Amino acid sequence: MKKISDYFILLIWVIVIGMTATVFALENATESVGPAISASAWSKPAWLTELSVGAKESYDNNLLGVSGDGMPKRYSWITTISPKIRISFLPLLENPHVLQVLSLSYEPDFATYFQDSEESNTAHRISSTVKGKSDNFSFTLDNSFLYVDGSSVAPTYPAPDNVRSSYANGFPRERRNQYQDRMKMAFQCDWDKFFVRPTGSLLFYNFLTDQRAISGYQNYADRYDINGGADVGRRVFTQLAIFLGYRYGHQYQEQIINSAYSSTNDYHRAIVGIEGKPFRWLTLSLLCGPDYRTYMDSAPVNDKNQVNFYGESMLTAEISEYDTITFKYKGSRWVSSTGQAPFFDSSYDLSCRHRFNNALTWDLGGRLNTGDYTVGNLTTGSAPSRRDDWMYVLTTGLTYNITANIGVNMGITANLGRNQQDGITNGNYREFDQYLTMIGIFSKF
Length: 445
Known about the structure:
Blueprint lengths: L5 H28 L1 H8 L5 E13 L15 E13 L10 E15 L7 E14 L2 E13 L16 H8 L4 E14 L2 E14 L15 E15 L2 E14 L11 E15 L2 E14 L9 E14 L4 E12 L8 E13 L4 E13 L15 E14 L4 E14 L12 E13 L1
Antiparallel strand pairs: 1-2, 1-18, 2-3, 3-4, 4-5, 5-6, 6-7, 7-8, 8-9, 9-10, 10-11, 11-12, 12-13, 13-14, 14-15, 15-16, 16-17, 17-18
Helix pairs in contact: 1-2
């Protein structure tokens, strides 16, 4: 992989320092000259809704998520530079009429791993949002595209580390060369208290890493999930609605080198849900239902026709002017990135934000991820179907706005991988502790 040029990093730092110096200079000019210069200095075009740059230094004590009983833990200091620009095209249109939001943002992350250059990468994030409304018809489209310019060589885990946690596998994978895309769209027609909402979504991974027939080498399988359907709902209160829905979807999993398996499948999903604001301080979205799934013949499962649970929820409680609590849950059947058994993927996420004042904010969060692979029938050899991995994630951080345009942040994240599968050999190799600490500075204009 090509290493990020030291000259380029130096150039980015010069830009950051220059922008910071400019901010201080403008503020001093504002204080000495008066408000007229302030308005002129800080005005920016209406179409430029965000312009910022951030720099952070972080330390990762376990880059590959290993237990340390076999392979030694690899660590690194990491410098990340993150400029961002967001543009709204509405001010450029004379009469937007139907359109309410038409925006595009670009946010690259330039990450340099000083003790392990193979992990250095540049992540290009492009997000777009379109929203519109005309009479009783409205629509939304959100798309997030990611291209990671990273190494095309995946890690190799020699035995017995080849039985490590599935969550550890994700750490280096997300830094490798790849494309990702996430899209959601919905159209809604309203009649009095009723509405009909056609909807669709896409989750897409295209890995550009080499595939090799080497024991312990990580071959990543391309995969995607695409579905479409509709909801029919009724408003029980002004800001609260219940609905019934249906989705037809298809999940694809690439068949990796030297493998006879692919968990590609089709599914039908019936859902019931509730969404809106039952109270002024609470916003929620809850949906769940049965998931009827049909796997192709090469899938490593005994039952090719399954009924699974699907659930998704988000609750945001603004319990005071200074405190916000958010809970998220998602549980669904998914295909693995290593091309083996499918699994039931669950995530429980609780986060709290306390704002001490306009300058200082404290974030505290906890998340539990579970990956249950026991639906599969691959129980010999490395036995990928005899796997139930959990990961506890604890995170806390502070953000302090020094001025309206400059701030600093710091935080620590603990990822604790734990094995929940009984009766396996070398179960301790599926457990790991990873700690990430960071401190950063950002400037907004």
